[in-house]
Design a protein that fits this description.
Blueprint (H helix, E strand, L loop, with lengths): L10 H12 L4 E5 L5 E5 L2 E3 L2 H10 L1 H5 L1 H4 L2 E11 L10 E5 L6 E6 L2 E13 L2 H8 L9 E9 L4 E16 L11 E13 L4 E4 L4 E6 L9 H4 L2 E10 L26 E8 L2
Parallel strand pairs: 3-4
Antiparallel strand pairs: 1-2, 4-7, 5-6, 6-11, 7-10, 8-9, 9-10, 12-13, 13-14
Length: 275
């Protein structure tokens, strides 16, 4: 790890945003005294349960506007845990062509798998509102729901991220005098199976390989390179037909300058006897 080369893919921010986005459009129906049906959007915010309960119960302004403030939801990222079951070989790497320079490419080593914990809290004034919200969530988790996200766009990394529902609990916070406000709180625990990626690096694309073969006696192999002549020269380069098919025929291939690393090219091998 090099502290002199900082990098940031914004993955934590993306995971938090993804989680909140899932529950951002929940609505429940309310029937007024005239029989008309109103759709009430359930707001969601990021914050711990204790702080949200204090806002709902203790703040006199919010208490007087309980019909507007409840129901509501909040969520919190609760922790991380390394997941060895999803580990891939550390030295595996993915590469893409640098769009601005066809002779270079970006590469990145294998991602590191982590399970990210989330908790979703649902605050309601009556049990029926809670039932309406929970029943809009549970059918989608069996017990996981997979999201697809562009995690590292510059590397074209678009990954499936499963979100697993672990548990559902309900707590009735009514405790005290009759005039005190009641709050029903549902707690849903989740695990998001995410990945964290390291820095990207540049490297040149190798299009030509030249190998010189030297002959030497069996008792003088160590000094062969410096003391003997070249007996054969081997050249390897990519070969591609104009229709995009690979070829090993140099005469039929398009110019090497027009062949890129993401093409399905073949190999043109030339052996020249220098003896």
């Amino acid at each position: 790890m090099s502290l002199s080369a900082p990098f940031y893919h914004g993955l934590l921010r993306k995971y938090v945003t993804m989680f909140g986005y899932i529950f951002d459009n929940i609505r429940i129906e309310r029937v007024d005294k005239t029989g008309d049906i109103d759709l009430v959007k359930v707001p969601i915010t990021y914050g711990p349960k204790d702080k949200m309960i204090a806002r709902v119960i203790q703040d006199p302004t919010i208490s007087r506007q309980s019909a507007i403030q409840l129901p509501m939801m909040s969520f919190l990222m609760t922790g991380f845990q390394y997941d060895p079951n999803r580990k891939t070989p550390t030295m595996n790497r993915q590469s893409v062509v640098n769009g601005s320079n066809s002779g270079n490419k970006y590469y990145q080593y294998s991602a590191v798998p982590y399970n990210i914990g989330f908790a979703l809290y649902v605050y309601v004034k009556n049990a029926e509102d809670g039932n309406k919200i929970i029943e809009q969530i549970l059918p989608f988790f069996t017990p996981d729901w997979t999201l697809t996200a562009d995690l590292v766009p510059e590397m074209n990394i678009r990954a499936d991220v499963p979100l697993v529902l672990l548990s559902v609990n309900m707590e009735d916070s009514y405790d005290g005098e009759f005039k005190e406000r009641r709050a029903l709180i549902w707690t849903l625990e989740f695990t998001m199976k995410g990945y964290f990626y390291g820095p990207t690096a540049n490297s040149s694309i190798i299009k030509f390989i030249d190998v010189n073969v030297r002959s030497a006696s069996s008792n003088n192999l160590i000094n062969a390179v410096g003391n003997t002549g070249v007996s054969a020269a081997i050249n390897i380069q990519p070969g591609l037909l104009a229709n995009g098919q690979p070829t090993s025929n140099a005469a039929a291939s398009i110019p090497v300058s027009q062949i890129f690393s993401n093409n399905n090219y073949g190999y043109v091998v030339s052996i020249n006897d220098q003896g």
